[in-house]
Amino acid sequence: MAAESGIGALDDAALARRVAAAGGRVDSQAESELYRRLARRVRLYGLRHLRDAHAAADLVQQVLLTTLERLRAGEVREPEKIASFVLGMCRMTVLEIRRGTWRREALLEKWAPASAGVTYGEAGTTYGGAEMTYEAPEPLVLDRERLTGCLGALAERERSVVLLSFFADKAADEVGAELGLTPGNVRVIRHRALGRLRECMELA
Amino acid sequence: MHGIGLETLIAYWLGELPAAEEEPLEEHLFACASCSARLEELAALAAGIRATVREGRVAAVISVPFLEALKRQGLRIREYRVAPGGRIDCTLRADEDAVVSRMQAPLAGVKRVDALRRMEVGGKVVFESRIDDVPFDPAAGEVLHLPSAAWVRGLPANTLRVRLVAVDEAGERALGEYTFAHTPG
User: Fold this and answer.
1) Which residue has the higher pLDDT, A18 or A111?
2) Is the ipTM of this complex over 0.85?
3) Which of A74, A125, A177, B183 has the greatest CB tally within 10 Å of its CB?
């Protein structure tokens, strides 16, 4: 436990340096912690740009397994800028996905030996003959009954704006055009409604 | 960049920010655990909202493009178009996900619309309500209402009367009255 709390106290850069400094060995503690932390951010990037939970999960595996491989091989020039490196990998991979040059099969072929059988939030790889499994934190899931009540408590106009924005992923100008509102009005209503929902759901 | 505001996070999530603002914001989100945690809450809210709509838990006044988005996502929708003064027999079958009433109304020049609803079961009024300031597209010429499918499925045979009224400085004037005679599916 002391070792785990110790690793948890390290920042991303220190973890990346430990992974890179392991040489031919694997610092499994540092790798698992780095994977766990960055998985959340990569998944959010994937959801924002790909709008699909499974595509976002694939992105997490592709980007983070490749990042760990590069760190171990000493191919990340500035491990202290690991967050920027991972963001760059995300951007490049999403571009490839949009161009149609990224193949999910390639991901499966590359990581299949150890990832076969792992669950949705996990990824596996082999290195130096060792099989490793990395676990991504479960996505935050809100209580649906409570959210239903909170949505029901919004004013009619607020609820319509929220649904159009977040069910249909529409920007303020599109929502405004559909409801006879200016984009500025939509932003004000949206901000107020989201604030109420967050308060009702007791989010931080 | 510290403590990214909610409006900026919303704008980012919905793709409203120009690239020049989005790129440094993403750099910050990747390096800042507390800001990415706030974004995760927003993502969870968005996912929850999508799920509640798909599961038929939410009632709302919607737009025609929203109705099309529901269909594109594979939801089976029963639609009823009703003219002012019209009456229609309606239901929601077990193999359908939602029902939408499309109330035609002369909306050009209208500033605000309120909806007055009254439901009767066996000749007795079981509820009356007024929804103030329902959203509408003046050019669409109709107000679309998506009731909660879960609520509709629990209803006995009933008659729902909806009266749409235009509201402005001069007072109220009726736009139309619509009668829905519901039988369980």
Assistant:
1) A18
2) yes
3) A125
B16/chain A closest Cα distance in angstroms: 6
Q: Is B139 helix (H, G, I), strand (E, B) or coil?
A: coil
pTM: 0.86
Q: Which residue has the tokens 């932390």?
A: A37
> A117, B63 in Cβ contact below 8 A?
no
From residue B32, give the alpha-carbon distance in Å to each of A191, B9, B139: 23, 13, 45
* Domain A144-200, CATH class in plain words: mainly alpha
Residue A125's pLDDT is 66
With a CB-CB cutoff of 8 Å, which residues 22-41 of chain B face chain A? 26-27, 29-31, 33, 36-41
CA distance A3 to A37: 17
Question: Nearest residue of A to residue B139 by CA position?
Answer: A180
Largest CA distance in chain B: 63
Can you read off the two tokens belonging to residue A163? Answer: 């649904």
At residue A1, does pLDDT exceed 50?
Answer: no
Chain center to CA of B133: 13
Give me the architecture of the B58-182 domain, per CATH: Sandwich (2.60)
pLDDT band at A109 (very low <50, low <70, confident <90, very high): low
Residue A129, min C-alpha distance to chain B (Å): 32
State phi, psi for A135 to the nearest 5 degrees.
-115, 130
Contact assignment for A161 to B29 by CB distance below 8 Å: no
CB contact under 8 A, B39 and A44: yes
Cβ–Cβ gap B59/A164 under 8 Å: no
DSSP for residue A81? G
On whether any CB of chain B is under 8 Å from the CB of A87, the answer is: yes
* Structural domain boundaries in chain B: 6-53, 58-182
